[in-house]
Structure formats: C-alpha cells, structure tokens
Design goal:
Blueprint lengths: L2 H8 L1 E5 L7 H10 L4 E5 L5 H12 L4 E5 L4 H10 L3 E3 L5 H9 L3 E3 L1 E2 L2 H9 L5 E3 L6 H9 L7 E3 L8 H6 L5 E3 L12 H22 L2
Parallel strand pairs: 1-2, 1-9, 2-3, 4-5, 6-7, 7-8
Helix pairs in contact: 2-3, 2-9, 4-5
C-alpha cells in the first residue's frame, strides 16, 4: 500500500496546531487509538522540527507524520529532513511541490479554484487540499470532481462531524480536520485524551460510513 493509499484508508488527516514536544506523543497515541493515523504538524508550532523528529522516531511505524502550513521549499526540505512523509501547503507554490517530490514524499498543496487545482496537479501534487472548503461546501467539491475526476481532492477548513459525510459523498478521498478534532488550547490530561480518542473514532467511522453510500 502506497503512502497515498494509507491516507485514503485512514480517511482523516488530523491538523495539529500548537502541540508541544511534551504532549505530541500522547495526542498522537489518542488519535491512533481512535483510527486516525495521518497527522499534520503545522510549522508555526514552536520547535516543530523537534516535534516531527520525536513523533517519527517513537511512532513512525504506527502513524504517518507530515508537516503543514509549509509556504516555501526551504521549509519543506527542513521538515522532510526531520521525518515528514507528506507536506501540506495552504497555497500552490510550484517550487515547494518540486522540492517535496525531489525527496519522494507526498505533496499536498492547498487550492480552491479549478485553475489552481489543475495547476497544482499538473506540477506534481499527489493530493489537492481544497481550502478553505467551508467557503462553498460539499456541492462545490462535487462540481469540481465532475470535470476533474482524475484529481484526488481533500477538503480542509470547516470540516465537521455534521458535514464530513456530505464531503465524502461529493467525492472527497480524505478530509483534513483541525480544532474540531484536536484542540491544543485545552489542558492535555487523561480526560482530554480519552475524549480525543472518541472524537477521532467518530470522525473515522463517519468517513467510512459515508464511503459505503
């Protein structure tokens, strides 16, 4: 199974912002136990390279670790050297895509319009993050998927338990979920981690159920 297939299989990419190197492992384990194994660590997180290195070293065989909010090729290379297996960007930067592909990891740029989506794909993107997905909703994704069925789409931004099924039925192969799944502003204690595991399980199950319909 390829890395892209693994992300499609888990269905949910957890977008983790602001996690410390101390709590990244407990958060990752809770997500994994809930069935969410693709983890995006955003690069504005303090000591993000250390967090990616730690997560890759301790749970690298159990989860897929990637970097998010990557704006340039230099940052992409740094995260890849730290262990990132995929690189998310909020925009289409051709040089970032090129750097990511050079090192054999997945390139997942953010795009919204048909032109941006096709441009990213033609320049080597493996998966397109339709962002911000909540601006136009699931129907927009379906409309894009119609003329561009060959391009795998992953809505991110505003994805919730209430609408994830609609996005999947509209053609999403995966979905990026942020603070509605992982909220690092809360105290990371046993109660929170138990809640996180259950929320992850709910998202994973909702995604899988929607695929059957």
């Amino acid at each position: 199974m390829t890395l892209l297939d693994q992300i499609k299989e888990t269905g949910i990419v957890a977008v983790i912002r602001g996690a410390s190197t101390e709590n990244i492992i407990p958060i990752a384990k809770a997500l994994k136990n809930g069935g969410v194994t693709a983890l995006e660590i955003t690069v504005e997180t303090p000591r993000v390279l250390s967090a990616i290195e730690k997560l890759s070293a301790e749970l690298g065989d159990e989860v897929i670790v990637g970097a998010g909010t990557v704006l340039d090729p230099e940052t992409a290379r740094a995260t890849i050297m730290a262990g990132a297996k995929f690189v998310f960007s909020p925009t289409v930067n051709k040089e970032t895509i090129k750097m990511t592909k050079r090192y054999g990891v997945l390139s997942i740029p953010g795009a919204l319009t048909p032109t941006e989506i096709l441009t990213a794909y033609e320049n080597g993107a493996d998966l397109i993050k339709v962002f911000p997905a909540n601006v136009f909703g699931p129907k927009y994704l379906k409309d894009i998927h119609g003329p561009l069925p060959q391009i795998p789409l992953m809505p991110t931004g505003g994805v919730s338990l209430e609408n994830i099924g609609d996005f999947v039925r509209a053609g999403a192969v995966a979905a990026g979920v942020g603070t509605s799944l992982v909220n690092t502003k809360r105290e990371i204690n046993e109660q929170y981690l138990a809640e996180l595991e259950q929320t992850a399980r709910s998202y994973h199950q909702a995604f899988k159920e929607a695929q059957k319909k």
